[in-house]
């Protein structure tokens, strides 16, 4: 299957949105992925292989040449700085990376603010530019409960509707960046002769 294009997609909602977008654009004949734990799907007619991987691993699969094309959130591209070609924005996956604090929080000493996040690089840069030193608390899930349990003063996390923050008595204070799904490519492939990417 060396003539196949390999596309890495993040497991979950974004893989479904990506597939729907590609189907509507006529790129693939596959309408949906079945949910039997299978992680590789072949579109024989269109010569496309889809890989379903963890969202933050998409960039690594592209960077290492294991996939030709990937769909990934702009937030992850900024955080991990993958060596990939970043192409067009896609019309889904819209959200924002923001700083959130507990409601009615007391202003902590600016010399010692604890911030819980899955985005240490972006978070450190943002607070540094504000002239604030922070202690990073690295978490990989349930970020919203960190201030409620006392392990952090604030969080930096993705926000879509804001309902999760509201449900956990948090207030979105500062927006760091807007994010959406991006199409990315394996760098050497972009500059090779006879590229397989004509359909894109």
Structure characteristics:
200 residues; alpha/beta; D-Maltodextrin-Binding Protein, domain 2; 2 domains; six-stranded mixed sheet; five-stranded mixed sheet; 7 helices; 24% helix; 32% strand; elongated
What's the helix and strand layout?
Blueprint: E1 5-10, H1 13-24, E2 40-43, E3 48-53, H2 58-63, E4 69-73, H3 74-80, E5 85-89, E6 95-102, E7 113-117, H4 120-129, E8 134-138, H5 146-149, E9 154-159, H6 163-167, E10 170-179, E11 181-185, H7 187-190
Parallel strand pairs: 1-3, 1-4, 7-8, 7-9
Antiparallel strand pairs: 2-3, 4-11, 5-11, 6-9, 6-10
Report what the structure shows.
The protein contains 7 helices and 11 strands. It is of the alpha/beta class. The chain folds into 2 domains: 5-93 and 180-190, D-Maltodextrin-Binding Protein, domain 2, CATH 3.40.190.10; 95-179, Periplasmic binding protein-like II (D-Maltodextrin-Binding Protein, domain 2). Strands 2-3-1-4-11-5 form a 6-stranded mixed beta sheet. The longest helix is centred in the N-terminal third of the chain and has 12 residues, at 13-24. The two termini are 19 Å apart.
Question: Percent of residues in beta strands?
Answer: 25-35%
Q: Could you say which overall geometry the principal axes of the C-alpha atoms support?
A: elongated
Domain count, please report it: 2
Say what the CATH topology of the largest domain is: D-Maltodextrin-Binding Protein, domain 2
The secondary-structure class comes to alpha/beta
Helix content: 10-25%
Mean pLDDT: 90
What is the CATH architecture term of the largest domain?
Answer: 3-Layer(aba) Sandwich
**First-to-last CA distance:** 19 Å
């Amino acid at each position: 299957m060396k003539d196949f294009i390999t596309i890495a997609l993040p497991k979950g909602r974004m893989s479904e949105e990506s597939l729907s977008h590609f189907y509507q654009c006529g790129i693939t004949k596959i309408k949906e992925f079945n949910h039997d734990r299978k992680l590789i799907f072949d579109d024989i007619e269109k010569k496309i292989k889809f890989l379903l991987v963890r969202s933050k691993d998409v960039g690594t699969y592209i960077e290492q040449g294991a996939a030709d094309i990937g769909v990934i959130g702009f937030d992850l591209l900024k955080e991990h700085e993958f060596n990939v070609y970043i192409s067009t924005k896609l019309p889904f996956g819209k959200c924002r990376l923001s700083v959130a604090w507990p409601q009615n929080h007391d202003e902590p000493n600016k010399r010692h603010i604890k911030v819980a996040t899955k985005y240490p690089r972006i978070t450190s840069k943002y607070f540094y530019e504000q002239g604030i030193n922070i202690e990073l608390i690295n978490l990989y899930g349930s970020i919203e409960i960190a201030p409620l349990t006392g392990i952090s003063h604030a969080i930096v996390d993705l926000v879509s509707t804001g309902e999760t923050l509201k449900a956990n008595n948090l207030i979105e204070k500062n927006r760091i960046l807007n994010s959406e799904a991006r199409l990315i490519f394996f760098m050497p492939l972009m500059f090779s002769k006879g590229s397989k990417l004509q359909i894109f």
